[in-house]
Automatic annotation (TrEMBL):
Identification of the protein by name: N-acetylglucosamine-6-sulfatase
SUPFAM superfamilies in the record: Alkaline phosphatase-like
Signal peptide coordinates: 1-19
Cofactor requirement: Ca(2+)
UniProt entry keywords in alphabetical sequence: Calcium, Glycoprotein, Hydrolase, Lysosome, Metal-binding, Signal
Organism per entry: Tetraodon nigroviridis
Residues in Sulfatase N-terminal domain copies: 27-363
Lineage, broadest ranks: Eukaryota, Metazoa, Chordata, Craniata, Vertebrata
Amino acid sequence: ASAAVTVLLCALLTCRVRCAETRAKPSNIVLIVTDDQDVLLGGLSPMKKTKALIGDAGATFVNAYTVTPLCCPSRSSILTGQYPHNHEVRNNSLSGNCSSPQWQKGPESQAFPVLLSKLGYQTFFAGKYLNQYGMKEAGGVDYIPPGWDQWHALVGNSQYYNYSLSVNGKEEKHGDNYSADYLTDLITNRSLNFLDTRSPVHPFFLMLSPPAPHAPWTAAPQYQKDFGDVKAPRDGSFDKPGKDKHWLLRQPANPMTASSLAYLDNAYRKRWQTLVSVDDMVEQLVKKLDSINELNSTYIFFTSDNGYHTGRQFSLPIDKRQLYEFDIKVPLMVRGPGIAPKQTVEAPVLNIDLAPTILDISGFNVAAVNVDGQSFLSQMAPSLRNGTARPFFLVEYTGEGHPTGDPSCPRLGPGLSQCFPDCVCEDAYNNTYACVRTLGSGQNLQYCEFADSESFVEVYDLKSDPHQLENVVKKVDPSVLQVMNQRLIKLQSCQGQSCR
Ligand SMILES: *[C@@H]1O[C@H](CO)[C@@H](O)[C@H](O)[C@H]1NC(C)=O
Ligand SMILES: *[C@@H]1O[C@H](CO)[C@@H](O)[C@H](O)[C@H]1NC(C)=O
Ligand SMILES: *[C@@H]1O[C@H](CO)[C@@H](O)[C@H](O)[C@H]1NC(C)=O
Ligand SMILES: *[C@@H]1O[C@H](CO)[C@@H](O)[C@H](O)[C@H]1NC(C)=O
Ligand SMILES: *[C@@H]1O[C@H](CO)[C@@H](O)[C@H](O)[C@H]1NC(C)=O
Ligand SMILES: *[C@@H]1O[C@H](CO)[C@@H](O)[C@H](O)[C@H]1NC(C)=O
Ligand SMILES: *[C@@H]1O[C@H](CO)[C@@H](O)[C@H](O)[C@H]1NC(C)=O
Ligand SMILES: *[C@@H]1O[C@H](CO)[C@@H](O)[C@H](O)[C@H]1NC(C)=O
């Protein structure tokens, strides 16, 4: 008997050793997050290389959404996998928890890069982090969020030149010499350098966050003449009056002025020009990963923090922050092991799903993490995971305003913001809303409630009205409204499992 036990024990031991030896190193992960890149108004058109190298090589998600269309809250959702009502970052200000001490002590200390780092990933960040990052009240450039081995983060909001970086906690100032300072290229260069100097023993995670195509839309010199005759598309809801819509959308002049049109066409073109450098970034990264033999064991995610509109939206010139598709829908393409090429995925996925998906890929037990989202690995790599799509989801937004009126728009009172050009305001404190969306099984319904003095409700049937021209709140069966209202109430206070 003892001989048999010895044999068994040996077999177990050898297996354990052998299994440990042959257990594959977890896959590497690259996450690219652009700033304000739409997908519905042609935002991916200037990125042919990215579409070929990531989209055609893997999965393109046609129903990817941010749970909140504003940079800092959205980026906080990406990092934590949580809805804003759980991470409590409400806007781009410190007082709204953007990179605030409370955020740093709370949600940021458990964000997914911390967990990846604990698993042994080498972690690298470059680019724009959170809008208030690096400010004195947010800990200055000395402060490096936990979980990052290499840290090259922009102080404040997106810039292309004349900015400061925190390079591993030390301030590095940049001017406006293209070959030394252009931020998108600098992010590319530093990431390539990281890949050259990484340890081959451990997997790596890179998060690259270029400023493009955010204002001030400064293209690299060699791209400043590109797309000379491109204009914002005139289809869909372009310059249509905002009928039966919430208060803010009943204000803009319709039709728009010629100067507003010229302004937004110029913005549209310049946004595309800045994205060409991001397209170069993707190409160079893929080439580098290939040359160091890591391309086939690396997942590459490409997405944006929120969508954007340039005039298409009911005579609003340029911005994000609205509940409509062009502002909440984002690009999302993923390539990597187990993802068949040239897939189009219809299932709805959210930016709060990125953290659980990335952790799932890394081998982390996703059931044990405090996220509201869910892994979408099953949607893009069914050979690796089983899983179902979610039936409905929440989009929630807290409007930004200014406590005082804008002196250049004397006719407007306080409480508004983004009143440019032509004193058309794109945001207000009472542009605060929550929407529930049912998408799948033949349904595509959006139900939104505003926290304004009218308790305004907007309802769209996107199957018959993809451009959200007609608010059908007075036409749909009241029982449908009731179901949506109940779902909304539940989702607005959901946490973890109850959000899924
Ligand atoms: C900021 O976060 C803290 C704790 O995380 C929370 O108590 C506070 O209400 C948040 N502030 C806002 C404006 O939501
Ligand atoms: C950068 O700052 C310098 C000095 O203030 C200024 O002259 C230059 O125009 C700025 N460059 C850009 C691209 O804003
Ligand atoms: C990036 O690297 C390229 C190639 O070495 C170089 O020409 C360029 O000046 C660098 N740009 C920045 C901003 O570092
Ligand atoms: C711009 O940066 C490059 C590369 O760092 C350098 O060789 C060149 O001298 C700089 N040009 C100016 C005008 O400072
Ligand atoms: C990736 O490609 C390299 C070189 O072609 C090969 O040695 C390796 O086994 C491949 N790895 C995977 C996970 O397919
Ligand atoms: C998916 O579920 C089926 C049925 O339970 C099972 O046979 C299969 O192995 C699962 N696939 C994966 C990738 O987990
Ligand atoms: C951000 O949120 C805080 C807390 O609610 C608020 O005091 C502040 O005015 C908001 N900032 C803007 C620009 O709306
Ligand atoms: C929204 O706020 C603005 C500015 O305070 C105010 O003028 C307007 O009447 C409000 N509208 C609603 C519907 O609450």
